[in-house]
Every structure is written in structure tokens, then in C-alpha cells.
Amino acid sequence: MDPVVIPILVAAIVVVFLVAATVRIVPQARRYNIERFGRYRRTLQPGLNFVLPVADRVNTKLDVREQVYSSDPKPVITEDNLVVNIDTVLYYQITDPRAAAYEVADYLQAIDQLTVTTLRNVIGSMDLEGTLTSREEINARLRAVLDDATGKWGIRVNRVEIKAIDPPNTIKEAMEKQMRAERDKRAAILHAEGERQAKILTAEGTKQKDILEAQGTQQAMILRADGESKAVELVFQSVHRNNADPKVLAYKYLETLPHLAKSENNTFWVIPGELTEAVRTVTSAFGDRSEMGSPVTAQRAEAAGDGTPDEAGSPEIEADPTLALDAATAADEVAKQAAVAVNDAKAEAEAAGEAPLPGRGGRPAAE
């Protein structure tokens, strides 16, 4: 080999080495801390950078993007002396690469230990229920303490979250029983409320039903009374329009007496004092019609003229041999019906253990 070529090759290698040692290419979102003879010189920014070969060297390479750090569960004692394990998630970002490299030896370990001590201080003043329901408050207090401590380390804590709070197994079982009891309580309350509403609705329905039935009965009774009133009015108008005399009314009165005796609730029947007068009126009516206006007998005329009462205090009905056959038959039929009605009433009264009462006017009941 030519002796001149060897020095040229050595010189080329030295130049290439010096160029490689002088040029530093820094990726985006990275920062390089440069030391010159063991002392911090500067921080290289992303892009092409030049350094002195041999004199300058890269001490630390840092990532300035926001990063996530999840710590292991740490035991923490609450105010009511219960040990809970808490996992935290930390979101941080390096804002000063020089301080992150030279102000603290291991910033991740420092942040982890600071988080644990802060959690113990914060949760130590809360009971278990407050710890489980106050995550936002715990996160805010953790962030305030970490920001104050990590600011001089060139690190900004953007967010701190509690990932999990694990109480002891016995506490978990007690909490499950409590939650089950609360659910059973709410279910019982809802069931009772449902039954209450159902009973209220049923009572309101029954009330409305009774009201409607009462109103219907009232309307029916009113309509029935109106009908009966109109019927009586029509009968009364018909009687007055036809100019019915007392003879017809007396005959209708005698027709009604057997119906009064047929009632199931009657245990005795009082014979009115007008019975003989009604019989006499009907007999006279048929007698006058059959004789076509003939005069009455001398005995009846004398009794009517004298006005002498009989032994019972009322005029007696004397037999008139001049009455026609139809008048006598009608009178006998009326007397038979009245006697049958009286006998039925007396029989029912004796069966009920009551003595028959005397009729009005001082005369005994007809037999």
C-alpha cells in the first residue's frame, strides 16, 4: 500500500469522528442536557445542534411530554382507625429539564413518596365514609401540595386521581350488608307505598260507587214517587170528574179490607167502626138501583126520622124484604169477604200468642 494513502485515511477517519462528535440531532419533545468538562452547559432544543467534541457530552435525555405515573397501593389509616389501600394516578410534565436533572436525584420516586405522605395527612383527618365520598377534595389537596413541592424540581403536576380505595374485607362485608339492608328498606317502603296507593284508589272507587248507587236509588225513588203522585192525581181527578158518590167509595173501601188482612207482617187486625156503615151504604146503593128509586120501608123511615141509636150506639141495618136479588147477593158477598178476612187475622194473631183487640166504636170484632 502506498505510504501516502495511509495518512489520508487516518485524517478522513478523524474528520468523520469530529463531525459526528460535533453534530447532535435532538428529536421533537426531547431535551438534552449538555455538560462541558462535567459542568452543566446548556440544554439542547429539538433539531440540529453543534457541540464541542470531547469537551461537551450529553448528561440526560428528558421527555417533556405529559406523562402518566401509576403508583402501587399504599396503606393509609383513616380517622376511625381503619386501614385502606389507595392507588393514585399522577399526570405530570417536565417544564425545566435542568432542574429535573440536577435538583432531584429521582423525581418519580420523590413524587411517589410525597404523594403517600400527603395522602396519609389528608385521609388521616377523614373517616372511612368521608374518604369514600370525598375524592374530589382529596385530589384537590394532593395537587396543591404536589405543585408546591415539585415546582422547584422543574415538574408541573397537571392532575392527580385516586384510582381505587380498598377497605379491609371485613369492612367490605359490613358495607355490603348495609347496602343490602338499605335496598331491602327501600323495597319495603316502595311496596308499602304501592299498597297504600292501591287501598286509597280502591276506597275512592268504592266511595264513588256507593255515591253513584245512592244517587241512582234517590233518582229511582223520586221517579217512583212522581209516578205514584201522578197516578193518585189522575185517580183523584177522575173521581171528581165523574162525580162519584159516597156509595162507590164505600164499596171500594170494602174491597180493600181483604187485602189488608193478607199482609205477611200483620199479627192482628183492627176492625174499623165504619164497617157496618160501609156495608149499609153498599146495601142501600144496590137496593136503590134495583128498585129504580122506590121509597124505603116504614121501619127504616121511622128509624131515620127518630134518630134513635141501637144498643151499640150506631143505627142497625134492618132487612128489607123488597130488596132485589142482586143487591142481596152483593151484600152477602161483601159480608163473607169481610168475615173471612177477620177470621184469617184472628187466626194469625192467636198463632203469634196475642189476643185479638176489640174494634173501634166499642164493638167486638166481627166473627
Describe this structure in words.
This protein is 56% helix and 17% strand. With 367 residues, the protein is α+β, with helices and mostly antiparallel strands. Strands 6, 7, 8 and 9 form a four-stranded antiparallel sheet that branches. A three-stranded antiparallel sheet has the order 3-2-5. It has a two-stranded antiparallel ribbon with strand order 1-4. The longest helix has 74 residues, at 169-242.
Mean pLDDT: 75
- Portion of residues in beta strands equals 15-25%
Oligomeric grouping of the chains: single chain
Head-to-tail CA distance between termini: 179 Å
Largest sheet: 4 strands, antiparallel
Inertia-based shape: rod-shaped
Q: Structural class, judged by helices and strands?
A: alpha+beta
The tally of strands reads: 9
Are there runs of 5+ residues with pLDDT below 50, and where?
Answer: 288-328, 354-367
Task: Please give the share of residues in helix.
Answer: 55-70%
Alpha-carbon Rg, integer: 64 Å
The helix/strand order is: HEEEEEEEEHHHHEHHHHH
Number of H/I helices: 10
Layout of helices and strands:
Blueprint: H1 5-22, E1 23-26, E2 30-36, E3 39-44, E4 47-50, E5 56-63, E6 67-70, E7 74-77, E8 83-94, H2 97-102, H3 107-123, H4 128-133, H5 135-150, E9 155-166, H6 169-242, H7 246-261, H8 275-291, H9 298-306, H10 325-351
Antiparallel strand pairs: 1-4, 2-3, 2-5, 6-8, 7-8, 8-9
Helix pairs in contact: 3-5, 7-8, 7-10, 8-10
